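Hello forum,

I keep getting stuck at the same step: I have a sequence, I want structure tokens, and every attempt I make locally crashes halfway through. Rather than fight my setup again tonight, could one of you with a working pipeline run this one for me? It's a single chain of 190 residues.
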Amino acid sequence: MEERSRRSGGGGAAATTSSSPSAAALDGRALAAKIQEYERFSNEVLKRDLQRVTELRARADREAQTWDELAAAVRRTMPASGGGGGGENAAAATAAAAAPTAPPLKTLVEVAPGVHCRAVVPDPSRLCVAVGLGFHVECRGREEALRVAALRRGGAAARGAALVEQAARLRAQIRFVGEALAELMRLPPR
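Reply #2:
Ran it on my machine without issues. Output:
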């Protein structure tokens, strides 16, 4: 047993010292491969994920802004008592016609992305809000329309906040990989 441990301990040290130039070359190649792998991971995975998260956050911010615009339009056109006015928002709402009780509302309705047509709504006291997946909610008053807009805006804002945190984590990972690369290459960190 002692002879075996002496051989493995002594032989290993002798092998390392006798073949140190080739081991250093192997370590240099392995180090270069590891550096390249980290650079590829940072550029192809982390930075791509950060760009995707940034785009999703911008989309969530635009959605929240759309719901804010709907709420502003409802406040502007519907009276506080719940009837008589109307709302307009080409991206999120269309007015539903009923028996005329208030002055007609003239608006633009989005019929396709970037394509709008003029519309005249005889009674803008009811509002149909597109909530997604082809579903529409009919709001029969100012308070109900504002509640729907606030709920949807809150959901978009929560998604945006979660995406901000995810982007911060990705930036920290990119910074960590950059510092690891600088340490591997023995360069000062940027």
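The CA atoms of residues 92 and 130 lie 5 Å apart. If your local run keeps crashing, start a new thread with the error log.
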